Amino acid sequence: MTCTDNTATGDEATGATTISAVHPDVIQTHILTCLDGPALASVASTCSQLHALSAQEPLWAEICRSTWPSTNAPRVRHVISTFPRASRSFFSDSFPPFAARGSRPAGIERALELISSVDLFHGRRAVLSRVVETETESGWFRCSPFRVDVLDPKDAVATAVEYPKSEEACEGLGEEFRLSWIVVDPKGRRAVNVSSGRAVSVERHWLSGEVRVRFATVVGGGERGSASEEALCSVTVTFGGEMQVREACLQMEDMDGTQLNGRDSLEILQRALEGKRGRFRDGKGGRDRYVEFVNRKMERKDRKLRDERRLDMLCVALALLSFAALSTFFLF
Question: Helix, strand, or coil here: 260?
Fold first, then answer.
């Protein structure tokens, strides 16, 4: 597709029509409105004419609403309107997969409030869309274990999903569901999708029969060698026996398996908000990153156990040596 109008010898001679010959209203209403976000971004990079037409706010606002129904909430729409390029900036922050290595923020005092825009899809149908606002200023938030719940304890959302009766069915269930959990910083005017999109694990509880579907993203950028070198943003969606959504919550976990408090989790989220977007450089997806994180966590645990055993043996050896020295002193 070309945007130049070569009227002399090229296109007129061959009978071809350039895109510049098409009325802008036709392009905007009949072509650009049929594209999704990535396709629209690609079209915008072809020439200045299409760039100008593709930058219109109504186009990107409709793409955001169709991609994430929860963004149609008035509070979220207002926050999106404050972004540098409104819906286009929000899409560029939220749609690309988050790169595992985030940047270390200079401080964490800026985010006074976080907004979670959550959408759960079964196939192409949205079964759950919610917006949750979380204050981050209180001492209770910063000292308590970090947890953001989408549903109240007594709430349940019905789905048309058949209950999985085998391990194979559970695995297939993980491919059917897709989750988007966009964390928005209204003051910083940034957003990031902390969900892996597809499930990284599906478990069925042996006693209660509940099905737990986990979505997770690994955030790096912490101090090398520490437990916070990498952290796991984990979203667990729990289904009851009739495959009703009973619970959907976001939590943070470090490499020691410790659930982080609000202050530490806020720092992790700031890393994600300020981190890079785009495809994983090494081609690994969310599930591969999750498995790698779990393996590294197990290796770290084994290494700590070995170090503790060595320390115990050293203490025993020192105790025996001290006892022998004292015995020798009193005997001679």
Answer: coil
Structure-token match 């109240």, residue found: 152
CA atoms within 13 A on the CB side of 233: 30
Q: Which two tokens stand for residue 275?
A: 């981190």
Of 284, 292, 149, 141, residue with least CA distance to 229: 292
∠ Cα 70 74 80 (to 5°): 80
Determine the Cα–Cα distance for residues 75 and 184; give it in Å rounded to an integer.
11
Quick check: 87 and 80 in contact, CB under 8 A?
Answer: yes
DSSP 165-184: -SHHHHHHHHHHEEEEEEEE
The token pair that represents 114 in the structure block? 């976080």
Report the amino acid identity of residue 34.
Answer: C
CA dist 76 and 184 (Å) reads 9
**pTM of the predicted protein model:** 0.84
If we measure between CA atoms, which residue out of 29, 34, 30, 7 comes closest to residue 18?
7
**The two three-digit tokens of residue 258, written as one number:** 């410790």
Q: Work out the end-to-end distance of the chain between its first and last CA atoms, rounded to an integer number of angstroms.
A: 100
| 193 exposure class (CB count in 10 Å sphere: 0-12, 13-18, 19+) | buried
Distance CA 48, CA 292 (A): 43
Sign of the C-alpha dihedral computed for residues 289, 228, 274 and 76 taken in this order? positive
- Three-class secondary structure of residue 201 per DSSP: strand
Most confident of 9-13, 26-30, 259-263, 324-328: 259-263
Q: Which of 42-46, 125-129, 183-187 has the lowest mean pLDDT?
A: 42-46
Is residue 107 predicted with pLDDT exceeding 60?
no
Q: How far apart are CA 185 and CA 110, in angstroms?
A: 9
Question: Which structure tokens are listed for 226?
Answer: 């520490």
